[in-house]
Design a protein that fits this description.
Layout (H helix, E strand, L loop, with lengths): L2 E6 L10 E4 L12 E6 L2 E11 L14 E2 L6 H13 L4 H6 L34 H15 L7 E6 L5 H14 L3 E5 L7 H11 L3 E3 L6 H12 L5 E4 L11 E7 L16 H11 L3 E6 L4 H6 L2 E4 L11 E5 L12 H13 L2 E5 L8 E4 L16 E3 L4 E3 L6 E3 L12 E4 L3 H12 L4 E4 L9 H11 L3 E5 L12 E6 L13 H13 L10 E6 L5 H7 L3 H15 L6 E9 L2 H18 L5 E11 L2 E10 L2 H17 L7 E6 L3
Parallel strand pairs: 6-11, 6-12, 7-9, 7-10, 8-9, 10-11, 13-23, 14-21, 14-22, 20-21, 22-23
Antiparallel strand pairs: 1-2, 1-4, 3-4, 3-5, 15-19, 16-17, 17-18, 24-26, 24-27, 25-26
Helix pairs in contact: 3-4, 12-13, 13-14, 15-16
The protein binds adenosine-5'-diphosphate (ADP) and zinc ion (2 copies).
């Protein structure tokens, strides 16, 4: 008799699989990774076969049979990976396995559309440029690792400024893996899947690549997934979730822009695609290649480096001017006189500029000058943001929005003051002063619709002379040779976040923005407005000195025992009922304090500001023993989750929070 051990795909945390099912003769080809529909209590559920056995502890007559097996299953390697993620990130097997299933699994679908073939014969068409010596060296190191040469490092950091030819190295490495009959995965931040970037991969690798991105429909994603599963395609390019792509005989895993925060999943499981990639590569003997201009401290410390120290085009990195805003009169507005001067220079020269301010909306605060009333969100403990175009006050944490008032509801005064600046206000100031030069704004209010984002970038691209103003979105990955000035208005805004990664984030943001300027023959400059000019993240980014920033940052983290010198785990609790939340948080902290391994610091429960009407508390653990800590957290949280009297409190676990 054949028994299938099936993990049902349920959301219930307390349910503990796998469960045994008897396989009938016609399901002889069911194996680890098969997706089956099974009777479960009174329901029918989808489940994944995680093991096979000859016998069961349950008498055969009491075992049910699966109702059906779906046409396509998952490779056994990915079943192991999904279960590993579940354990590693304190989630459930079911949630871990969902990550590796075919897109839309279990939904009865229409027949796959026939694919539209792009012209040409399908194989790689475009040739490769002759690599520079540094690129050659990097590729040689990767090929040695692919070959399994003794002493070759199998995890490599490709550190090179923007435009230093990193993508060319990835392409050559992927081609080398393919030539050895092995597959590859290239992870990129979602924003990196711009049509031009994808076209570059397609031009070189032809239809051997499958692209998985969130703009595709489930059906389209399923088609791409099937092409990989069947071996028709052997390279997958995609964002974080592509780390679970069913690539056979994986030889190479590339993580482009490895510093990008989008590699961390916010929901459950709170996996980090970089850590998953590292694990998967190690398990299947693949080479891991992480590339960036601004590596994370943990990557810098943990991986041998390949350096691409200069731009391919021979251009210098643009000079960076740091403008100290502490002495300036706040009434003179959010732009320093020198910034205005530089922008006017761009207008005279008929060139282009990028201006970044990391806050959308018009103004972040609305206050009454007469009585001091301040407009806050009724559901969240935060200020409402003034949105000028829609004439509304909007909460950036929940969907709350109200009409922008013209008189104070408390005292009837009309002297309302809108303090601070967001993208809309900067857009207005720039338009007023620099017109008729066009000003384009890019932030998530604009880019809500699919395609709107690309359209604005395209209009900026074809304009003769223009300014692009926006949030962090403007700092990522585009290449506009006519940009001769990039300016960041509030470089220290991210530094004020109460987060040990604030410095790292600020460094990456300033350095990435600096990389947007001076990519053409006209050269360029960079302006950084800040209240903290001496902060290492700003001073080092201004000097284009990643190494010095990282050495200092690592020293600081060692002293404070932050990652990579410890492991963090966070528990987020929330409830509409504050007293209830307080007692559950205290109870949880008590249980953890008793059970956590020696050397784990437990901080909190700390109150967080209210969001969407829910009060919040947070517990943080700093651990030397990651595995031991996660195991205790899993055990304690599962026990609480099973306790129905605690239903009003929701508990989420974030391992390695970002
Ligand atoms: P990065 O990924 O580091 O930003 P890219 O690989 O995109 O850099 O290279 C920047 C530009 O230089 C691209 O247009 C690319 O085609 C070109 N390029 C890269 N390497 C070479 C080379 N060896 N010879 C000529 N052009 C190159
Ligand atoms: Zn008032
Ligand atoms: Zn709100």
């Amino acid at each position: 008799m054949s028994i299938a051990k099936v993990e049902p795909l349920t959301t219930a945390r307390a349910l503990r699989g796998p469960f045994d099912y008897r396989l009938p003769a016609e399901m002889a080809d069911v194996g680890v990774g098969s997706v089956v529909r099974v009777p479960f209590g009174r329901q029918r559920m989808l489940g994944v076969v995680v093991g096979l056995a000859e016998t069961s502890e349950i008498p055969p007559e009491r075992l049910a049979e699966p109702i059906e097996a779906l046409e396509t299953g998952v490779p056994a390697e990915l079943v192991r990976l999904g279960l590993w993620v579940a354990r590693e990130y304190c989630s459930t097997p079911s949630r871990g396995l969902r990550l590796v299933l075919p897109p839309g699994a279990g939904v009865r679908r229409r027949r796959a559309r026939p694919r539209v073939e792009h012209t040409g014969v399908g194989t790689a068409a475009a040739g490769a440029p002759k690599l520079l010596p540094e690129q050659d060296e990097a590729v040689a190191a990767i090929v040695a690792a692919l070959d399994g040469a003794t002493g070759a490092d199998r995890e490599l950091l490709l550190h090179g400024v923007t435009g230093s030819g990193k993508t060319e190295v990835y392409l050559a490495a992927v081609e080398a893996a393919l030539a050895m009959g092995r597959g590859a995965i290239v992870l990129v931040p979602e924003i990196g899947l711009a049509p031009q970037a994808v076209a570059r991969f397609r031009a070189r690798l032809g239809d051997r690549i499958a692209v998985l991105h969130s703009a595709l429909t489930d059906g389209e994603r399923y088609d791409e997934w099937r092409r990989l599963r069947s071996g028709e395609a052997s390279v997958c390019v995609g964002p974080r979730s592509a780390v679970f792509a069913p690539v056979e005989n994986l030889g190479l895993l590339v993580i482009d822009e490895e510093h990008d925060p989008s590699y961390k999943q916010e929901g459950d499981p709170s996996y980090d695609a970089r850590a998953v990639a590292r694990h998967r590569a190690a398990e299947c003997g693949a080479v891991l290649l992480a590339g960036t201009a601004t590596p994370r401290p943990e990557t810098w410390l943990g991986m041998p480096r390949l350096e691409l120290p200069r731009r391919v085009d021979g251009l210098r990195m643009p000079p960076v001017e740091v403008l100290d805003m502490r002495g300036t009169d706040p009434r003179s507005g959010p732009l320093h006189p020198a910034t205005w001067e530089a922008l006017e220079g761009v207008r005279r020269a008929g060139a282009k500029a990028i201006v970044m301010i990391n806050r959308r909306g018009f103004a972040p605060w609305l206050t009454c000058r007469s009585c001091g009333h301040h407009w806050n969100c009724p559901n969240c403990d935060v200020s409402l943001i003034v949105h000028r175009h829609s004439r509304r006050l909007v909460c950036h944490h929940c969907s709350h929005a109200e009409t922008l008032p013209s008189v104070c509801g408390k005292c009837d005064s009309t002297t309302l003051s809108r303090a601070g600046a967001g993208t809309q206000r900067i857009e207005e100031l720039l338009t007023r002063r620099l017109g008729p030069m066009p000003v384009f704004r890019l932030d998530s209010d604009i880019a809500a619709g699919r395609g709107a984002h690309a359209e604005i970038l395209a209009r900026f691209d074809v304009a003769d002379s223009a300014v692009l103003v926006g949030t962090q979105m403007v700092a990522k990955g585009h290449d506009f040779p006519e940009v001769t000035l990039s300016a960041i208005l509030d470089a220290d805004a991210t530094l004020r976040f109460p987060d040990f990664r604030a410095g790292e984030r600020t460094f990456a943001m300033v350095a990435q923005l600096a990389g947007r300027s001076g990519r053409g023959e006209a050269g360029g400059e960079v302006i950084v407005q800040t209240l903290a000019p001496e902060a290492p993240s700003i001073a080092r980014a201004a000097g284009h000195d990643a190494a010095a920033f990282l050495e200092g940052e690592l020293e600081r983290r060692r002293a404070l025992r932050y990652p990579p010198f410890s492991h963090l785990t966070r528990i987020n609790l929330s409830s509409e009922l504050e007293p209830r939340l307080g007692s559950v948080a205290a109870h949880l902290a008590g249980e953890l304090a008793d059970a956590l391994p020696e050397g784990t610091d437990l901080l909190g429960p700390a109150p967080m500001f209210r969001v969407r009407g829910r009060h919040r508390r947070r517990l943080l653990m700093k651990a030397a023993d990651r595995e031991g800590t996660v195991a205790v957290v899993r055990e304690v949280v599962e026990r609480l989750a099973a306790d129905r009297s605690l239903r009003e409190v929701s508990i989420g676990v974030d391992v390695d929070p970002q």
